[in-house]
């Protein structure tokens, strides 16, 4: 009997404290200035909307959103390198925006390096627009600093 080809099972579920070591390892692989274990644990502890993306039960990405006073902020999102480019980042972003909407957020903000073309492309394709710029906000891999683009989306657009 021939083996059946099965689609991988992609699931988005709340991040647990026990996910933090795996989440941290992904963050350290893909981020230029990675968050620490304490920041991830703190976000879970204060009740931010923290999610992981799993592929056949293995954590391959995460997203963190905060909400307050009608505004949501996407604080972090990453997909592990081998899993990038397969639509998981878009799926996590849509999920975070659905969460923002469910909290009643009128606007959702995020910050991104202009050099991060993949991320900027993803956010713009979802309907985010630039609303500000923080000059020399991020440290770079080398010496020097890089601006942060402040992007925002209001409401829940058709492009989602
Ligand atoms: C940014 C990131 C989350 C995107 O996740 P992903 O799963 O790779 O993205 P997707 O496969 O869902 O692609 C969504 C969109 O991103 C853009 N994108 C993704 N990979 C790209 C690539 N190699 N080249 C150009 N654009 C790309 C495209 O706009 C793409 O849309 P399309 O599918 O219609 O072409 C992921 O690259 C990542 O984790 N990067 C490192 C951490 C990081 O930079 N986080 C964001 C900090 S602000």
How would you sum up this structure, described in words?
Helix content is 29%, strand content 37%. The protein is of the alpha+beta class. It has one domain: Gcn5-related N-acetyltransferase (GNAT) (Aminopeptidase, 3-Layer(aba) Sandwich), CATH 3.40.630.30. It has a seven-stranded mixed sheet with strand order 1-2-3-4-5-7-6, with helices on both faces. It is globular, with a radius of gyration of 16 Å. Bound molecules: coenzyme A (COA). Coenzyme A binds next to strand 4, helix 3 and helix 4.
What secondary-structure arrangement, pairings included, does this model have?
Blueprint: E1 10-14, H1 20-30, H2 37-45, E2 49-55, E3 58-68, E4 71-79, H3 88-103, E5 107-112, H4 117-126, E6 129-139, E7 145-154
Parallel strand pairs: 4-5
Antiparallel strand pairs: 1-2, 2-3, 3-4, 5-7, 6-7
Bound molecules: coenzyme A.
Coenzyme A binds next to strand 4, helix 3 and helix 4.
Q: Report the sheet-strand fraction.
A: 35-45%
What is the global morphology?
Answer: globular
Helix content: 25-40%
Distinct small molecules bound, one entry per kind: coenzyme A
**Sheet having the most strands:** 7 strands, mixed
Please tell me the total number of domains: 1
Give the CA-CA distance, first to last residue: 42 Å
Assign the CATH architecture: 3-Layer(aba) Sandwich
Structural class: alpha+beta
Compute the number of helices: 4
Q: Can you identify the CATH superfamily?
A: Gcn5-related N-acetyltransferase (GNAT)
Radius of gyration over all CA atoms, rounded? 16 Å
**Regions with little confidence, pLDDT below 50 for 5+ residues:** none
Mean pLDDT: 94
Strands in their spatial order, largest beta sheet: 1-2-3-4-5-7-6
């Amino acid at each position: 009997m021939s083996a059946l080809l099965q689609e991988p099972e992609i699931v988005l579920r709340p991040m647990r404290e026990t996910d933090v070591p795996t989440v941290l390892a992904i963050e350290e692989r893909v981020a230029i200035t990675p968050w620490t274990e304490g920041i991830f644990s703190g976000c879970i502890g204060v009740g931010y909307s923290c999610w992981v993306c799993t592929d056949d039960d293995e954590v391959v990405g995460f997203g963190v959103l905060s909400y307050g006073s009608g505004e949501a902020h996407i604080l972090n999102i990453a997909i592990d390198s081998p899993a990038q480019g397969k639509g998981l980042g878009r799926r996590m972003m849509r999920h975070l925006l659905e969460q923002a909407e469910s909290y009643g957020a009128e606007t959702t903000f995020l910050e991104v390096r202009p050099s991060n073309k993949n991320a900027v492309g993803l956010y713009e394709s979802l309907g985010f627009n630039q609303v500000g710029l923080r000059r020399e906000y991020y440290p770079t891999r080398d010496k020097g600093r890089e601006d942060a683009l402040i992007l925002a989306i209001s409401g829940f657009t058709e492009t989602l």
